[in-house]
Structure formats: C-alpha cells, structure tokens
User: Fold this.
Amino acid sequence: MNQARLKIFNGKVITPYRIIPAGTVLITGNKVTAVSDRNETFDNAVEIDAKGKYIAPGFVDIHVHGGGGHDFMDGTETAFLKIAALHAKYGTTSMLPTTLSASPEELIQTLHAYEKANEKNADGAQFIGMHLEGPYFAMAQRGAQDPRYIRDPDPVEYAEILSRFSSIKRWSAAPELKGAIEFGRYMKSHGVLPAVAHTDAIYEDVLLAFENGFTLATHLYSGMSGVTRKNAFRYAGVIESAFIIDEMDVEIIADGIHLPPPLLKLVYKIKGADRTALITDAMRAAGMPPGESMLGSLHNGLKVIVEDGVAKLPDRGSFAGSVATADRLIRSMVFAADVPLLDAIKMITSTPARILGVSDRKGSLVAGKDADIVIFDDNINIEMTIIAGKIVHTRQEELSR
Assistant:
C-alpha cells in the first residue's frame, strides 16, 4: 500500500541549527523523509508552496488546561477532542493535557476521558500524556487552585493512581511539603516527571528536591516564592533557585501579561532557550471572545472574567488563568522580548520535547521524526498545521468561513 507523500517547498525551513532560506521538507506517511536546502524532486507527492513563509516543527505545549469553551476537567471525551482541535489551529501539534486540584473521583474521571479521547483524536493536537497539577500544594501559593482539595502528598493515593493510569507523564507539587521528597522519588522511579509548583520553598528545599527528581519549575514566577525573610534574614526562593541551578528546566507563560517583557528577557538571559519551555497554561476561554468564563470544570469550577488578554478573578485582584495560544507566545518572545526567532521556536519545540522525553520523535524537523509541521508568516500567523503527515488546518479555509 502506497503511503501519502507531501512536498513542502519554497519556504524558510527552521531546523535545530539554522533557518534555510529556500528549503524543502519531504514527508512520507507520518514521518519526515528529508529536509533540503533546494527544491527536491519528489514523485507522486502533493506539493505545498510555502510562498516564502516559515516552515517549522509543530509546537509542543506541555502545560495546557483548555480552550474553545472546554476544559480537560470537564472530564468528557468531547472536551479533550475540542481542545485539541482548537489549539491545532494555532500551531500546537502535541500537548500535555493538564488537570487542576480536584477530588480523587473527578481526577479519575478526567484520566478515563483522556484514554477514550486519545483513541479517537484524529484532527487535533496529539496527546502525549497527562500532567497532574496538584493537589499537593502550599496553601499560601495556591493561586486559583481550589483550596478544598489542597493537601500534603498521600503515598497511598498517588501510588494507586499511577498503578491505574500509564498516561501520567508529569506531576507538579510543592517540594517543601511533608512527604514531597518521597513523592518525587516515587514519580521518578515510575517514569513520571515531578515538577516544582505552587510552593513556598526556599533554596535548600529546592536543591534537595532537584536531587530527588524535581528537575522542572512549573510556570516560573507564578505561584512560587521569591526572596523571602524569616527573622530578619533573607532566603532565596524558588525563582532564584531555578536560576541558580543551571540544570533545572523552567517553563513560562509567555503571553506578555503573566510575565511582562522585562521578565521574559531576564528568564531568557539566565536560562536560555535550551532550558526554557514556552507554555500556554490556557484555560477554556482560549480562542474565545472576552467576557465571563469558568476556570476548571463547568460543574465545579471558579467563575472568572476574561479581559485585557488574560483571565482574572471576579474582584480583578489577581490573574486566574491564561487564554494564550502558542502563536501568541512566540510573538511575545520575538517582538516584545527581542528573542531571536530560532530560539523562540526552540523554546516551544525541541526544548519541551526534550523535557518530556519525546525528543526522539517530536520537536525538530529531522528525517525519521514525526511529520508535525507548522507554516506561518512574519507575524506568526499560522497558515497551515500538519500533524502526523495530515493537514488538519489551513488559514485559507478559516478565512473563507
């Protein structure tokens, strides 16, 4: 049986090392066959003229909660599929669906929904596992997480959940809590990435956690301690710890609001593109008009207001979630933080793929890897999204509706 063949030519191809001015990408089936610096002959292929636009690896979002009016905590197959389809329009080709602190029953329902949706997801961003964000957090740093469910790590609970669901690839927790170091060791021994999140830890806590598997800081600056004082003495918080520990990876909500341009520049200057992943952390209002929305599940979530490009608590006293899409993250880094495009793309492709352990097949345009490709213009408007060799979105179709 002949496999489908695609030839994408006449575009600026973004490779792991450079941008090829007038390159070509060849695809056979669901894999990249070749990347070339000239217009190659590729018989019996569907040809796509990029018309001088950028040809990049598909974007990898390792922290996302929802979009298009749906949240993963809705716990339905439909929600998973609709969110995946929405973010594919903005260049995301792989995503790590993320939960919120919830009851064990609600969490298990969401994990079951993932399994069902993963079998049917044909036209949206591919699911590459689940990320559990909570409920093992510091109450003072909970942000918009529901305080009813926040608690210390429970070894009986997390061992039972991991034994039932192999889809869990990452679990965020506060490392200073009682039992958190044992939690981190258990996660690491079972192939799950423990990440530092919603925490009041100081440097000594973070260093110990890093030595026991906590190698990623969840949404740096958000929900975590900075320099703090105890009995008149200053202590480095999680933010400073992430900067001090060279090998610690960080992820940032690069919507330009959660972190303004000066902080985006600072993270890039200290951690660099190889240690920084861009995430949307998007909730259900991503891709939707401003107004009232809900953070978390429809039946048990928190009402929020979406305005100024971000979700806020009803009293407008603090942010309650991101409504970013992947294209916006790149625009923020390039046009507001003055980061070179090649590095900005790395931060949403090869770096998150490496952090999550899928760089053998995702995150770069290399022969043999998955044919997940995005074509975009100079303003990072997404012209086409290809997932596993299949065209799932074109801007032309969107504009014609």
The mean pLDDT is 95.
